[in-house]
Design a protein that fits this description.
Layout: E1 10-11, E2 14-15, E3 21-23, E4 44-51, E5 60-61, H1 63-73, E6 81-85, E7 104-105, H2 107-116, E8 121-124, H3 138-145, E9 149-152, E10 164-171, E11 179-181, E12 183-187
Parallel strand pairs: 4-6, 5-7, 6-8, 8-9
Antiparallel strand pairs: 1-2, 3-9, 3-11, 4-10, 10-12
Helix pairs in contact: 2-3
Length: 192
C-alpha cells in the first residue's frame, strides 16, 4: 500500500481481482475493515441498476445523471447497491479484455450516493465503478473511504434485473483480505 496506494492479495495464481468480486475499505486504507470484519448489512441489499449502454450515456456518470435516473425510476434505495449496466460483460474476450473502456461513476457521484442516499455498495458489470481514464480510481476510493464496498465484474445476468425494485445478495468467503471472489444472486420478478 505505501508504494502503490492499494493492497492486493494473491492465492497461488488467482488474484483477489479475478472474476466477480468485492473490494472493501482495507483495499485502500491501512485502517480500513477487512472482509471478516464487515457486518452483514451488505449481504442482502435493495438494488438500483443504472443502464449506461446507450450511446448518449457518456463515459462518466455524475450526480446530475443519477438525479435524472431517479426522476424516471424512483429514489435510489437507502442501504442499497447501485450497479452500472455497461454491457461490457457480454463483450469481454479472454486474453484481450474489453473492446473499449466501460463507463463509470465520478468520485463526486459516489460521494453523493453514500452521503445523500446512504448506499452500502456501488459496482459494475465490468472491471469496476471507476470512469475510464481515472487512474486515481476516485469512485472506488470514495466508496471504500466511506466504509462501503465495490462489486465488480457482476456479469451478464445484470441485464435481466429491473432498474428499481429488485434485490441482490452478495455471498462468498470472509477471509481477512481486502477483497475476494463472491457469488451474486439477484431477486427479480419472473418475465411476463
Amino acid at each position: 500500500m505505501p508504494a502503490d496506494g492499494f493492497l492486493v492479495e494473491q492465492v497461488t495464481s488467482l488474484g483477489s481481482h479475478t472474476g466477480t468480486h468485492v473490494s472493501v475499505p482495507a483495499h485502500v486504507r491501512t485502517d480500513g475493515l477487512h472482509l471478516d470484519e464487515l457486518g452483514e448489512r451488505w449481504t442482502l441489499m435493495p438494488l438500483a441498476v443504472v443502464d449506461v449502454r446507450h450511446p448518449g450515456a457518456g463515459p462518466v456518470l455524475g450526480v446530475a445523471g443519477l438525479r435524472d435516473w431517479e426522476s424516471r425510476h424512483g429514489p435510489i434505495p437507502t442501504g442499497g447497491c447501485l450497479l452500472l449496466l455497461t454491457g461490457r460483460a457480454q463483450r469481454y474476450r479472454p486474453g484481450a479484455g474489453y473492446d473499449e473502456p466501460a463507463p463509470g461513476l465520478s468520485g463526486e457521484a459516489v460521494a453523493w450516493l453514500f452521503d445523500e442516499r446512504a448506499v452500502l455498495a456501488v459496482g459494475s458489470d465490468s472491471f469496476g465503478p471507476d470512469a475510464p481514464g481515472d487512474d486515481g480510481f476516485a469512485a472506488t476510493r470514495t466508496a471504500l473511504a466511506r466504509g462501503g464496498i465495490t462489486v465488480e465484474n457482476v456479469g451478464p445476468g445484470l441485464s435481466r434485473m429491473r432498474p428499481h425494485g429488485d434485490w441482490v445478495a452478495i455471498n462468498g468467503p470472509r477471509p481477512h483480505w481486502s477483497g475476494a471472489q463472491v457469488g451474486i444472486t439477484g431477486f427479480t420478478l419472473p418475465p411476463r
